[in-house]
Amino acid sequence: MFINSGRRGILGGLGPILLAVLAIVVLAIVASQAFFSRASAAPQFRSASAGEKAVALGVALAEAARTLPEGGTTTVGEITTSRKWPSNITKVSYVASDRQSAASLTGWEPTNPENVAVVVVRMTGFFRVEIPAPRGVTPYVTGHQMTIVADSTTGQMLDFDLEPTDSTVALPAEQALLPTS
Amino acid sequence: MPPRRIRCILATIAATVLAGASVVLVEVSPASACDNNNHCYGTAWSNPSGIIGLAADISPSCMRAPNQTFTTDELWLEDSSAVNWVEAGWLNQGTNLSIGGNTTAGIFGFYADSRPGGGFHAHILEVGPPTGTFKHVAINKTASNTYYGGFDGHQGLSTGNSMTPTVGQWGSETNGNTTAGYSWVRNTQYFSNGSWHSGTGPDFSVEVDNNQNFSWISQPNSYNAGPSC
């Protein structure tokens, strides 16, 4: 009985300490997970690979061919077949990313869990884009800065933004398709 | 006004009175070609006080878009200026065309908006949804500068749009004369004054252009719209 009382006494004394240590460990784990979650949620942009560059070029030429302003002289065939940039485009840049990060460049926050690798293409110049619109609204818009977020495997446009002015803000880690170096 | 159109309008008014509904006349626009500068619509629209959201289940029974054409089955919210809006729904796009920045032919679920201060934005929510299936489409204002857009559970928030909507539109849009996109739409709802309401709103009007359709299945909760299959 004397020994049991002593063991209970020793263990009773250690109990609160053990609980405190356990609580500190749990808090540390939760805090570290929160830290790394915040770090991984930060927008991610990186230099594109050669394959991603090819996709970006295809996306840019497809847009260039279908957003020509009225009165342009470059033909669609010259753009898509000969890869000739029309004169209404002065700059084309690109970067690799993921949709969750890149969509914010077009004013969109995807809230469903799907996320895919993308290329972001930004085109500067003057563009005319046919759009879906409500009855009574002119079904095209013009602008000076176009941003396209596209699936880096298929080239499918996922997010699009046409702004009336050129923000002159570079894409993070951007590389240039036009002007060519 | 052509006699035929007068008879059409009078017949519609008579039918409306007999039905006891508060519907403004159905207007059929003169037959004019649909093209890239002149889109054609089959739509109903209404302006319930405080409207900030629309939703419905939409199922196109077919979708066809030849070269350089497109067709939609969708919903719109717009403000009184008619230059700011949000929209979402089905898009079928043909080859050799950029519609809202999409240059790939196919069928899609999409969201798009035009904002005060300029800027047009479009987003593909789903690639290749199968026709003949109902997809829940919804658009609604969730904060002073934010709109929710959803298609079949694929969704997101459009930030930076401060538009205050006043009008809801339901139906179909196309730029072609041989396109198809006849849809079945059910469970129409609009959001105003803090809650969702069944239907498309009181005092709605219907307008139908060349190569388009709009007809009630069960007014105002379900309808058919879009170019015929």
Could you describe the 3D structure shown?
The complex is a heterodimer of chains A (about 180) and B (about 230). By secondary structure, chain A is α+β, with helices and mostly antiparallel strands. Chain A is about 35% helix and about 30% strand. In chain A, strands 1, 2, 4, 5, 6 and 7 form a 6-stranded antiparallel beta sheet that branches. In chain A, a hairpin with a 5-residue loop joins strand 5 and strand 6. Chain B has about 230 residues and is mainly beta. Chain B is built from 1 helix and 16 strands. Chain B has one helix at about 5-20; strands at about 25-30, 40-45, 50-60, 70-80, 85-95, 105-115, 120-125, 135-145, 145-150, 155-160, 165-175, 185-190, 195-200, 205-210, 215-220, 220-225. In chain B, the strands form 2 sheets. An 8-stranded mixed beta sheet of chain B has the order 1-14-2-11-4-5-6-7. In chain B, strands 3, 8, 9, 10, 12, 13, 15 and 16 form an 8-stranded antiparallel beta sheet that branches. In chain B, strand 8 (about 135-145) and strand 9 form a beta hairpin. Chain B starts with a helix and ends with a strand. At the A-B interface, helix 2, strand 3, strand 5 and strand 6 of A face strand 2, strand 4, strand 5, strand 6 and strand 7 of B.
State the gist of this model.
By secondary structure, chain A is α+β, with helices and mostly antiparallel strands. Chain A has four helices and seven strands. In chain A, strands 1, 2, 4, 5, 6 and 7 form a six-stranded antiparallel β-sheet that branches.
What are the key terms here?
heterodimer; A: 181 residues; alpha+beta; six-stranded antiparallel sheet; 4 helices; 7 strands; 36% helix; 29% strand; elongated; disordered N terminus; B: 229 residues; mainly beta; eight-stranded mixed sheet; 1 helix; 16 strands; 48% strand
Cα separation of the termini of chain B: 31 Å
Distance between the termini of chain A: 89 Å
- The count of helical stretches of chain B stands at 1
Summarize the biggest pleated sheet of chain B: 8 strands, mixed
Q: Supply the number of helical segments of chain A.
A: 4
Q: Largest contact between protein chains?
A: A-B, 41 and 52 residues
**Major sheet description of chain A:** 6 strands, antiparallel
